[in-house]
Amino acid sequence: MRICWGQYALWAVIVILGIASMLSGCGAKGDLYLPSHTAAQQQ
């Protein structure tokens, strides 16, 4: 069974998109929890 170049291209796109999505999450900043209502009212 031979694999055509289109399947290689599809796997390459899937791998590139997967790596890009993992790397984009590395720089995410912000609170990791929902602040309480009292903390929002104090500001």
What form results from the Cα inertia axes?
rod-shaped
Give the helix level as a range of percent. Answer: 55-70%
Mean pLDDT: 79
Using DSSP, what is the number of strands?
Answer: 0
Distance between termini? 66 Å
Q: Major beta sheet, specifics? A: none
Given helix and strand content, the structural type is: mainly alpha
Low-confidence stretches: none
Task: Count helical runs.
Answer: 2
Strand content: under 5%
Radius of gyration: 21 Å
What order do the helices and strands follow? HH
What can you see in these coordinates?
With 43 residues, this protein is mainly α. The protein contains 2 helices and no strands. The chain has helices spanning 5-24, 37-42. The longest helix has 20 residues, at 5-24. The model has no long low-confidence stretch (mean pLDDT 79).
Question: How would you summarize what this structure contains?
Answer:
60% of the residues lie in helices and 0% in strands. It is mainly α and 43 residues long.
What descriptors fit this protein?
2 helices, 43 residues, mainly alpha
List the helices and strands and how they pair.
Elements: H1 5-24, H2 37-42
